Each structure stands twice: as C-alpha cells, then as structure tokens.
Amino acid sequence: MQYSLILAALSAASVTAQKGDWAASAAKASQSLQGLSLQQKAGIVTGTGWMQGPCVGNTGEAQSIGFRSLCLQDGPLGVRYAGSVTAFPPAIQAASTWDVELIKQRAVGMGEEARALGVNVLLGPSAGPLGKIPQGGRNWEGFGADPYLQGVGMYETIVGIQESGVQACAKHYIGNEQEYRRSELSANIDDRTVHEMYLWPFADSVRANVASVMCSYNKLDSVYACENDEYLNQILKTELDFPGFVLSDWGAQHTTDGSAKGGLDMTMPGDNFGDNQFLWGNNLVNAVNSGQVQQSRVDDMVSRILTSWYYTGQDSGFPNVGFNSWNGNGGPNVQGNHKEVARAVARDGIVLLKNTNNALPLNKPESIAIIGSHAFDNPQGPNACVDRGCNTGPLGMGWGSGTVDYPYLIAPYDAIKQQADADGTRVTQADSDNFSHGGTAARAAETAIVFITADSGEEYITVEGNAGDRNNLNAWHTGNELVAAVAEGNQNTIVVVHSVGQILLESFIELDNVVAVVWAGLPGQESGNALVDVLYGKTAPSGKLPYTIGKRAEDHGVSIVRGDDNFSEGLFVDYRHYDKQGIEPRFEFGFGLSYTTFDYSGLTATYSDKSPADNVAAPGGSASLYETVATVTATITNSGDVAAAEVAQLYLGLPSSAPETPAKQLRGFQKVHLEPGQSATVQFPLRRKDLSYWDAQGKNWVIPSGAFAVHVGASSRDIRLTGSMA
Ligand code: BGC
After folding, report:
1. Rounded distance, CA 388 to CA 76, Å?
2. 603 Cβ partners below 8 Å, 6+ apart?
C-alpha cells in the first residue's frame, strides 16, 4: 500500500515532464523497459483475446511499472457498447460542415467521454477508406473523398481527442477502400498516388501527434498491411517519423515473425476472434528465444506503446475502465452537454442542394405532410439492431464497429411536429414507404416532406442484401418511386436525404414539383432537431458536399473491385476525375446552397519563401513541409438579407513544369459567419507541401517552378476568383 502510494506520487511528479513531449516520453519508456521480463513484454504487445476483458481490445498489464491493461475501444464517432454516451454525427457529417472549430469540438467531446469511461485508446479517426469508391461501405466513417479535407479532419480530431489524455488511433492504414474481399485483396498503389492521396491524411495525423495507427486488413503490393516493411517501417516510422505504435486491425495479423519484422507493435484482439490461437504471446517469446525475432524488435514494440502512454499522461490518474462491452454494464452517463455540439455538427453539415424560388425556409405553412418510414421512430427503439445493422427508422449513422448505442434519437417527424404545433400548422403523415399512402398524404397538404435513405457499413453484417458495400447508388426502399408519387400529388415537395454517401438523384431532381432537396447526411442522435433548425431558417444551411454526386454510377469511373486493386485512376479521384474527363456532375464536390448570397472579391496571392524543404525528420515528415510559404486572401460579402456562413474554398493548379496533376486540387478552406451586408477577409496559408508534388524517383516533395493557378470559389466548380502566383 505504502509502496504503491510512493509509486503513484513518483509517477504523478514525473508526468508533467513527459506529457506532450515525445523525447521525454521515449526516455521514460526506455527506462521502464529495463524492469520488464520478456513474458511481460509479450503481454503488453498481445491482446488478451476476443471478449477477454471489458473492451473490444485489452492488453496485458505490467504492475511492476504501474502499467494497467490498456482498454482499446471503438470508435470514430464515440464510445461503442457503452450505456450512456453521445451518438455524435459520423465524421462524414463533420466534414460536411467544413468548420474546423466544430470538427475539433466534436472530438473534444468524444475524448472527454472516452476518458470518463477509462478508454485508453479510442479507435478513430478513420482516413481509410479515403472514399474513392462511392459504394465503399465505410466511407462515412471518414472525412470525404479528398485528401486535404481528410487531413484537416484527422488533424483536428486527433488533437481534440488527445486533449483529454485519450490516445487516438488513425486507421485503417492503408488502401482499405472497400469491404468486399477486404482481407484478401492487394492494393497496389504507385508511390506518387500514395503520397498525394492516401498517405496525405495519415501524414497530417502523425503531425497531430497521434499516439497509435491501425494497420488495415488488406495487402499492399501483395504483402499484408500489418507485416508490410515498406509501409510500416519505411514510410510510416521512418519517412513520417511516427513515434507511437502500430496495432493490427482485429484479426489482421497473419504471422508471428513476419509481423514483428514488418513493423507491427501490438496485435488485436490477440487471438483470432475467440479461437484461442495467439500468434504472439508465448509464440513471440519462443520466437525471441529461438532467434527468429530479435529481442530489440520486441523492446521497440514495448517502448513505442509505453511512449504513447507516457506522452498522453496515462501513467498518472487515468480513470479505471467504467463499463463492459459484453455484460450489459454500460457504465455511467458521460454525455455532459455534448448534445449541443452534436446538434451543431448535424445542423451545419446539412447541404441544401435545390431550393426553387426560396421554397425554404418554411414559414408557418398551413399544412404539412410528413412521408416515409425514415422520418419516424423505429418502434423497436433506435438500437434495435446490433451495431446498427438494419435500416429501419431514422438513419443517423451507418453500421458496423464504427457505431455507438444511441442515448436517444430525435426522429424528424417528432421535431417537425413540435415546430408545426407551435406554428399552428396542421400535420398529416404517412409513416411507411408505400407509394399510394405517400401520394394520398401529399395531396392533402400544402407542403410535402418526403424522406429517403441509403445505408452501408462493415462487411460482417449484411443489411438487405448489402454486405457492407452498397450494391448500387440508388435510394433504398424504392425511395425514387416514393418521391415520384409524392411529387405527383404535391407542388411543394421537399425531399430530405439521409445517406452514408452519394446517391443518384436523377429520377426526381429536375421535377418542377420537387422544389427543394435537403441533403441531411448522417446526423447522429440530434437528427430531427438539426433538420428543423435548417428547414425553418433558424440557421441558414452552410454545409458543402465532401464528395461529388454524379448523374450516373459509371460517371465516377470506379466501382467495387473484384480482384486486386491497382489504383489505376491514380490521382484522378472524385472531382479530379470529373474535371479531367470533362464529365458534368449533378452536384460537384464542395457544393451547397444558402438562404443568402455571397460575393467574392479582392483576390491576393503572395508566394514569398521559395526555399526548398529540408530533410530533417519530424512527425508527419520534414517540419519544413508544413511551414507557410504562400498566402492567398479574398473578401467574402454576404450580399443577401439573412445571416449565414459561407465556406470559401481554395483550389490550386500546379505549374505546367510538374508531371500530370489534376487541374484543381483543394488546398485550403475557411468558413465565415456573416451578417447581411457584412464582409470578411478569408486567408489561406499554403504550406510547402501544398505546393508540391511527390517525385517518386527522387523520393521527395518538389515544388515545381512556374506559375500556380489560384482558384477561390464556393465549390470545386463554382470558381469566383482566379489568379496566379509564381
Ligand atoms: C474494424 C476496426 C475496428 C475493430 C474493432 C474491425 O473489424 O475494421 O475499424 O476498430 O474491428 O472493433
């Protein structure tokens, strides 16, 4: 007792010295390493086995150094399998806000809840998939189909989570773009494409000091990601100078010595989902004793795990695990006031796609019909299906490990009804997707609001024939036909879409009777409240699409791959592909309407510091890559008559001296809130990396000489100001 008190006091005293300091944390880790036996080391790097501990992942402990079993728990939108947590909107909705502060605050909330429940490692955020394939089942867990936007989302989220001393986990590294054959296919990505697309957000993650990275299920150039020397040792740990640890996705480890040599530092869940087969544990001890795996490699694994633990200050005062994933003990209510940020993200991520003659905002209509099953509570409750693996009732998140149990889910119908009652609006309803019911309800009201969805998730659950990835890009439950029936009966039809990603809107988007289309995305628990805020103009819509909505599925140029994936589209993903091929999208990346209008003026572009990047290693790659060398500014004016926010976007074109590169690439954005008539200057600082391409031969970032095209606009195609800088 006395002894442990002294130990606790000692570690409390030393914590300030380590926390937030990689070098000091590494020094402390190597000191602690001295006191550990090989058996203890093997325990720290090996999960205890599936469901052997309160969390989805649990490590061994080492009491001699005060190291308790680590709790690793999903996921990217909050704490999974807990009883009373906030169901934040998924990352795709956070990305749709394009609001850096909101993205960060969402993560602060997630970190606080994870800490309060004793979660050491929260298994998120996710930048893999990047979302190159619209049908990809898990795109909604990340921040949209652009590496720069993903990078900002990852950075802010990691900083936000780790503020509470919870370790974030950047996942799934790397090339895991689809669910179909995710554990068999090889992603073969050329070096330039890796650096400029898929690695980009992971570099930002390391730069944000992420404590851990999860290697993915797939192979890379025919070698499993979790034993891939090139991707783990060379790129992640050397080029990006990642000081933390690599943990396997659940069951993504395939060999004892191969994974050790390839750069894996922790295996999860330890066994292969309850089969009691441990590739590490005693097998790692034996491999060291027989000389197959070097002791120094095991020491490095443990050092990295301890370094992240010290870095986040978890060696002192970190709460015990306060819930259990498996036995119904959900733990205390840790929601605090996080429903406010959850609502703000849900609301500001809503994208207004169509609004004929200012049909929205609603102004006390005489009567409204609310149509479609997804507007109404699931009578079985919002958590009726494990890991949200069914599509009944309001859709607030996709399905799979990246979900949480809702504390509540505000159905659109309930929130609209409340507002309608206050306004004296008569409400009729059709709480099914039956066309004739929908048509009848629509005919009986002044305004009809019809709800459609599309869902996707992780491959271990199949929902309505979709094994994770979506089978197609259509609205589910014959949503198109439902909209047609409603529009036939009502001249003021408003379509609300809750979806994991792009769907085809062609069957109704141009109908005169469809006066508004509201892309409400994946709103989490605050669905109805967020929607009412926008429908009624309490807040003007300010979300922008984090991907392109095409007119035909084929227009995206990619689809679920059946064999290996050679990533032959290279850099030409999403809007980069549409621009290159000259294909007209329905709604382009970055698009979103408001209730006001914005003028753009006064473009300036200065490129002052032309010195090249140096090669001094630092987390994320050479620190000089992240120094600001150019700045673009513009003035945005709210030229309409309601207060609103605009997301001004900067796209760069590289000089012609660079090898073939997309004509425009997102390299900055800023959201500004403006009163009517008010103006503000937006600033886009450009880092060396933002002006560079990856030279695969020279293995370096190169800033091409010549003039850069500078485009500032309201979307990737609605460019308002163009200039150049050299
Ligand atoms: C998923 C990971 C998740 C893990 C633990 C895996 O199937 O791919 O994203 O963190 O399970 O639940």
Report:
1. 15
2. 632, 633, 634, 710, 712, 721, 722, 723
pTM value surpassing 0.85: yes
Give the sign of the dihedral formed by CA 299, CA 194, CA 150, CA 495: negative
Under a CB-based contact definition with an 8 Å cutoff, are residues 514 and 354 in contact? yes
Q: How many CA atoms lie within 13 A of 252 on its CB side?
A: 30
Q: How many CA atoms lie within 13 A of 474 on its CB side?
A: 12
Domains of the chain with bracketed CATH:
39-291 (3.20.20.300), 352-542 (3.40.50.1700), 596-725 (2.60.40.10)
Residue 225 near residue 216, CB atoms below 8 Å: yes
Q: Tell me which residues of the chain have a pLDDT lower than 50.
A: 1-16
Q: Are 173 and 262 in contact (CB under 8 A)?
A: no
Question: Which strands, in side-by-side order, build the sheet including 679-687?
Answer: 598-607, 628-638, 679-687
The H-or-E segment that residue 153 falls in is helix 147-162
The model's pLDDT over 186-216, given as tens digits with 9 standing for 90+, comes to: 999 999 999 999 999 999 999 999 999 999 9
Closest residue by CA, ligand 1 atom 3: 401
Q: Is 465 exposed, middle or buried (0-12, 13-18, 19+ CB in 10 A)?
A: exposed
Beta bridge partners of 594: none
* Amino acid occupying residue 256: T
At 8 the pLDDT is 38
Confirm whether 249 is a catalytic residue.
yes
Cβ distance 249 to 215 under 8 Å?
A: yes
Question: In whole angstroms, what is the distance from residue 559 CA to residue 133 CA?
Answer: 6
Report helix angle 435-443 to 479-489, nearest 10: 30
Ligand 1 atom closest to Cα of 74?
10
Distance (Å) from CA 234 to ligand 1 centroid: 25
**Local structure of residue 358 (DSSP, 8 states):** G
Rounded to an integer, what distance in angstroms lies between the CA atom of residue 298 and that of residue 225? 19
- Bridge partner residues of 399 (DSSP): 457
User: What per-residue confidence (pLDDT) applies to 610?
Assistant: 86
Nearest to residue 123, comparing CAs of 171, 68, 177, 60?
A: 171
For 44-181, strand residue ranges (E) read 57-58, 71-73, 121-122, 167-173
- Alpha carbon of 250 to ligand 1 centroid (Å): 6
Among 79, 140, 249, say which to mutate for ligand 1: greatest number of ligand atoms within 8 Å of CB: 249
Would you state the torsion angle of the CA atoms of residues 217, 565, 571, 579, taken in this order, to the nearest 10 degrees?
Answer: -120
Q: Give the pLDDT of residue 615.
A: 77
Q: Tokens standing for 642?
A: 């309601």
Alpha-carbon span 493 to 487, nearest angstrom: 6
φ, ψ dihedrals at 101, nearest 5°: -65, -40
90 burial level (CB within 10 Å; 0-12, 13-18, 19+): buried
Q: Distance between CA atoms of 408 and 418, rounded to whole angstroms?
A: 17
φ, ψ (nearest 5 deg) of residue 613: -70, 145
Chain segment 517-535, per-residue pLDDT in tens:
999 999 999 999 999 999 9
Ligand 1: atom nearest CA of 401 is 12
Predicted confidence at residue 17, as pLDDT, reads: 57
Helix 22-33 / helix 295-311 crossing angle, nearest 10 deg: 130
Beta strands in 164-263 (DSSP E): 167-173, 186-187, 212-215, 219-220, 223-224, 245-248
| Residue having the nearest C-alpha atom to atom 4 of ligand 1 | 250
Question: 248 CA distance to ligand 1 centroid (A)?
Answer: 9
Tokens of 374: 């997804």
Is residue 450 within 8 Å of 493, Cβ to Cβ? yes
Please list, in sequence order, all residues whose beta carbon lies within 8 angstroms of the beta carbon of residue 321, skipping any fewer than 6 positions away: 54, 55, 71, 117, 118, 119
